[in-house]
User: What shape does this take?
Amino acid sequence: MAGSYGKFWEMRGGGPYDEGQEMFKCVDCGAETHPVDGWDGAPDPCHCAGHCSSRSSDWSPGGVSRLYRENFDRIFPGAPGAGK
Assistant: This one.
C-alpha cells in the first residue's frame, strides 16, 4: 500500500463466490472508494458524507473540542498554548 490510511479500511468488495475488488471503506460514514490501482492507490475522501470527519485531515489548527482543550490544559498546564 502506498500509505497508511487510519480512517479507511482495506477491504474486498463483491460476493462470496468471486475474488472481489480491492477497495477502501471509511470507518466513519461507510463510504467506499475504488481506486484503479486497488490498495496501491489512495482512498478519496470526496466520496465521504458531508458530515464525515474523514473529509478533512486528522489534525487541523484549533480544530479541537472544548473538552479536549480542558483536558489538555489540566494535564499540561505549562505547555505552550495551555489556558487559551
